[in-house]
Structure formats: C-alpha cells, structure tokens
Amino acid sequence: MPSQIITNIKQLVNVREQTHLLRGEELAHLPVIENAYLIIEDGIIAEYGEMKDAPKVSATGGDLEGIILPAWCDSHTHLVFAGSRENEFVDKIKGLSYAEIAAKGGGILNSAKKLNQASEDELFNQAWKRLEEVSKLGTGAIEIKSGYGLSVEGELKMLRVIKKLKERSSLSIKSTFLGAHTYPIEYKENHQGYIDLIINEMLPIIAEEKLADYIDVFCEKGFFSAEETETICRAGMQYGLKPKLHVNQLNSIGGIETGIKLNAVSLDHLETLTETDIALLTKWKGVSTLLPTAAFFLRMPLQPARQLIDSGAAIALASDYNPGSSPSGNMNFVVALSCIQMRMLPEEAINAATINGAYAMELGNELGGITVGKKANLIFTKPIPSLAYLPYSFGNNLIDKVMIGGEFI
Ligand code: NIG
Ligand code: FE
Q1: How far is it, in rounded angstroms, from Cα 360 to Cα 363?
Q2: What distance in Å separates the CA atoms of residue 359 and residue 168, rounded to the nearest whole number?
Q3: How far away, in angstroms, is 56 Cα from ligand 2 center?
Q4: DSSP 3-state of 402
Q5: Is the pTM for the entire model greater than 0.85?
Q6: Predicted local distance difference test score (pLDDT) of residue 174
Q7: Residues whose CB is under 5 A from ligand 2 (ion)?
Q8: What percentage of the chain exceeds 70 in pLDDT?
Q9: What are phi and psi of 210, to 5 degrees?
Q10: What is d(CA 37, CA 52) in angstroms, rounded to the nearest whole number?
Q11: Strand, coil or helix: 152
C-alpha cells in the first residue's frame, strides 16, 4: 500500500503521543491539531503535525475541509442475531409490561427461538449487513457477544459466525461468550443444569476452537445471581477468557463487587447504581461501560455519567446493538445522547467512544487515538463548524468517509 498524505485537515482530533485509559477529569481533555496533515503507511498512522511542518512531498490523499477523528470503538454489542422484535416494541408502546411481553413469548427467548431456526449462513449474512452498516456510520472496532443460542449448538453457531466475521472483515473484532444470557425454557426450573451445560459442554469446545476472547454473564434478578456469575466466570477464566459483564441494568445485586473481584476488563450497563457501587467503580482500575441507548429505548433513567466522571471513574460508551433493548448500532447517536441526556461534554463523549472503548476491548495500544503506530481507522466528517457540532446536530449524518486500516470503505 503506498503511503498516503492528507493535508489541510481543519482539525485532527484525539492526537496523543501515548495513550492510557482516561479517568475522571482526563476525559474532558481532547487534544486537537488545527490545520493539520496526516501520513498513513501500510494502514498505520506514520506521522502527523501542523500544516506548516508538513513534508513537501506530492500528496496522494488530497486536501480536506472536514475534521478527522479516530473511528468509534464499540465495546459492547450483540450484533449477531436473527430477525427483529419490532412487534414487542409496539406492544410496549401500547403499555404491555416486560412480564406480559415475556409471557407472549417475547424477550431474549424470542430471539433465541429465531436464532436456533436460522442457518449459520443466514445468520452470517444478516450480521455482515449490520457490520457494513455500522462501519459506514464510523465504527472501526467492535465487540460482539453470543447469548441468543442458549443451547450448545446455538451458542457455537453464533460464535462461529463471529469468528467468520473476524476473518472476513477489516474491522477489529472481539468475541464474547454470553451463554449465561438467560435460562432456556428447558432449564427454567433447573438452573444448575444449565450452568453445568455452560461449564461442561460449551466452554471446552469454545476453548478448543478458540471461539471467544471474553466471557459475559447477565447478572440480574431473575437471571444470574452474583454467585452464579462468579462460578461461570471462574470456569471461563480457566480457559483464559476474561470477564466483561452485564451488571446493574435493573437492580444492584452484587455484580460490581463480583466483577471487581474477578478483575473484569469492563463492567457494562450500570443504569442502577447505589452510592457504594459508584464509590467502587471510581476506585477500580477497569472500564465502566455505559450503554445509554439501551436505557433510552427501554424508557429507563439513563446512567449517572456525570456522577461517575466527576468522582473519577474510567468510562466508555458503547451501543449495546441488539434486537431487544437497542436495535441500533449508531455510535454517533450514542455520543449525541450522552451529551444531550447525560450531560457529558462533547470531548468526554468522544474520548469515551474512542480511546476508552478501545481499552474496554484491550485494544488500547492499537486503536482509539491518532497516535503513531496505531491502525488508521478514521472518520472523515463533512465540513462542520466545530467538534461540538457532531453531538449538537444529532441524527444528521455528518460522516463523509470512513477509513479502516488505511483504506476507505
Ligand atoms: O444488553 N440485558 C441483557 N441483554 C441485552 C438485551 C437482550 C434482549 O432483550 O435481547 C442488553 O440490553
Ligand atoms: Fe448487552
């Protein structure tokens, strides 16, 4: 690949000589070079600086009116699923409760039924389309979970689809095993039986075929208790899978303590936090991942982002793209919603959706910033007056082009 130089960039955003996970006040600092140039070699950021210092070589990339920022790092999604659940959405609008929808066969089990009926190819094709869509919306790295199979065959099918996505896509992809998403109907009265199935049947094959990077559990009342979460995570950790967990979406039941004890990479959702939970997250070295579109879609109070940041937590933003609680993987909207409804500053939201998202996937050394040696995964915006215009002008597509590994998609 020839080296590319992009000149007269109005603003080059999130430029950092070195990067680390950003906490508290650091999130509000988003380093920018005005009127910049950028050189990319073999898909990697090779050099950048102010235009006055640009090398006088023949430019291959041309001039740019807009802003360049790192592509979004979406560290929590369920992008592989079969079909959709807009009928439940309409039922919810009409006033049906979660329990009533579940009684009609809705919820995670509805997606599990559809998933188990779909072939691996169908599932791959649907997921590929979604991946293409989100990449056009600026996502350059993504974590994808299983969790709609809930059977040995179904979970393996999902994870094999994710593996195929990893092989065929230029996006950076991480795979998470979420067999413990809910109890399948057959195990409704036999929780230990399903946990045994996860531990004794699913995990050994997942490890053997190297199908996952992480293990996840939906730690929630009526789903998996903190103790069950610990048991399942410890089994996964035996195979080298680190925990990335669903905690405190609806209730505070000890998931945060468990995740911290197990050295989780990230603790995600966090809609429902006690003062003790906030204090624990603040002191913790891992990533607290907020999924505001899930709270928005379920008409729940959003995560206390301001309180978390002001007390010093390291937060990331992710889409939670899934058919039940966030049927959108648009990180531009996640960023806008975080500013509008959680009072995050544009700088904080962009840092949380780029550099900190990368750390939430253990990709902090490769992605998330304009740093020499990092992968050239970049968003080129249309001409915009300033960075704050991105979340301000919510819902409008302000992306001109997206580059993944040095190539425009
Ligand atoms: O992250 N909370 C658990 N799982 C998903 C939603 C699952 C579904 O409804 O399909 C989430 O919000
Ligand atoms: Fe989720």
Answers
A1: 7
A2: 23
A3: 48
A4: strand
A5: yes
A6: 98
A7: 320
A8: 98
A9: 50, 55
A10: 9
A11: helix
Residue 60's pLDDT is 56
Ligand 1: residue whose CA is nearest its atom 5: 325
SS3 content of the chain, % helix, strand, coil (to 5): 40, 20, 40
DSSP assignment of 99-136: HHHHHTT-SHHHHHHHHHHS-HHHHHHHHHHHHHHHHH
Ligand 1: does its nearest atom lie under 6 Å from the Cβ of 322? Answer: yes
Residue whose entry in the numeric block shows the structure tokens 């413990």: 180
- Atom number of ligand 1 nearest to Cα 76: 1
Q: In the predicted model, what is the mean pLDDT of residues 293-319?
A: 97
What 8-state DSSP symbol labels residue 59? P
Asked whether the CA dihedral 263, 265, 268, 270 is positive or negative, the reply is positive
Q: Is the CB of 143 under 6 A from ligand 1?
A: no
- The angle formed by the CA atoms of residues 376, 381 and 386, to the nearest 5 degrees, is 115
CA distance 147 to 233: 15
From atom 1 of ligand 1, which residue's Cα is the shortest distance away?
320
pLDDT of 100 = 86
Distance from residue 9's CA to the centre of ligand 2 (Å):
36
In 262-330, where does DSSP find H-type helix?
Answer: 275-283, 292-297, 305-310
What are the structural domains of the chain? 4-70+369-408 (2.30.40.10), 72-359 (3.20.20.140)
Tell me how far the alpha carbon of residue 337 lies from the centroid of ligand 1, in angstroms: 19
80 lines ligand 1 (CB under 6 A): no
